[in-house]
Amino acid sequence: MPSFLHRFYENITRKKTYDTESLHTSQLRRCLTVFDLTILGIGSTLGTGTYILTGQVARETAGPSVILSFLIAAIASILAGVCYAEFGTRAPRAGSAYTYTYVSVGEIMAFIIGWNMILEYVIGAASTARALSAYFDSLINFAMKDYFTVHFPLHSETFAPHADLFAMALCLIITVLLIVGIKESAVLNNIFTFINLSVIALVVVVGLTKVHGHNWRISLEEIQNLTNVTYPVGKGGFFPFGIEGTLAGAATCFYAFVGFDLVATTGEESKNPQRAIPMSICLTLVVPYYLLNPDAVFPEAFRYAQLPAFKYIIGAGALTGIFSSLLGSLLPLPRVLYAIAADGLIFRFISWIHPRLQTPIIATILGGIAAALMALMFDLRKLVEMMSIGTLLAYSLVSISVLFLRYQPVDDPLLRSITPVSGPIYKELFRPSQTHPTIYSARITKYLIGLLVINGFIVCAIQIFASHRLAAKESGTVIAFTIFTITEILLVTAIARQPKSEKPSYFELTFHETPLVPYVPILSVLINTYLILKLSPATWVRFGVWMVLGFLIYGFYGFWHSSQRFINDTQRLLSGSTSSLISS
Which fold has domain 30-396? Predict the structure, then answer.
């Protein structure tokens, strides 16, 4: 039995390898410049997260403290981003986090990240299409919403109140556009992003002329006098829903920062979603948070501020910005599907490339249809929360993978063969006998990282439980929190004491190095874990269904049809034949 488990572990952690010929070859059409990719990244970060999420989180979750929600989400994004950058430059081939993980860590971790990236882009496209539909609807006085509610209602709490045929059509139109020509799509995106940036500057400049500091100091008496509001409005002030509301808002606001990975996987990293913070400051000072319209927040805010002409100017700019974000979500989706299918981890026919267009047509069509169906049935809030949990988990796995890589032995037989001196295990934990990573020290570090993640999850869960149940003063909660926190500190200390590799694992190119390892990756994992736990239980259920589906596909298909499995088996057979010849 132990030998079976050992073989199973070796199979699910097998690493993808490249030969010299395939390292720089691709069947896909290479026509996008660095400028195109940068504008795609900017456009993808300045869409739904800026124009829709700001209003939703401000009205329903955080109030004016949405500013801090965006700031916390920005910190989490930066921590994940520096890990992401090192991960990419350590791998021998440009591409997504899925490819990085497969080359550096192993197959099962790569599949989990890739499967979550599919979720990220599908839901990103669906939520963006919903946002674009809502903004267009606001310019025609919500005629579509009224019509769809009457003729296409969805009588289920799981789905949106009504089907959104317009959002579904948008996803299908962009899908056709991507099939016909990626370069043409990028040119259109460049124009729309320029308009979008101009409108954002206009919102901030004009909005600052209508700010009222009182909107950040709304009293409880004013809240209690509201008679026409049927939804929770908190208790007023800067934190109407408390610190817990601010943190819960941060978990959702993380959505606004996910677009950076489109740039990070292809070239220089560019983070522009910090524009959401001045936008949210302007918004919550212009309009009381409980009067915000979450479906079309900026046009309606300027109407409230008695600037109706700007409603249409801002609305037009928002449409171009959200369109760019939709394009930025649907563009990388087929590439991720293509990469995973080409490796045999999902159905291989998905990786078919059209010989003339040089685009993964089947992957593009499937991704577009999936996004269209999600946009048809789910409302924006459910989509954003589900996307956030998948993205937070994927970025946590990237940070964990960076830790694994840093403590792996370099490809030097002399160093790999070094074994630690015999002695008590606790000495190897806090006073390692070697200055370079060995197979033994790498194994110790993996165990420590696993315990760290589990223990960190427990610490975050205890803190959230205590705040929700007001049990912070109960002795049992305090003792448990103290014990697990001390354990976490000891685990971090033990990991930091282990010998690290400062050399790329695969080739001698200069690479971006994550600073303060292991502290930055560990902090990234802990913040992401806390934000994940702040999401609603229903989001966890939907995400659990998605992951179960993914593991079923991998277990019944990907594990057996993996291209790397065939390569490893072939190498094993050749190695066995060579050994037989030598012995004879």
Answer: Amino acid/polyamine transporter I (1.20.1740)
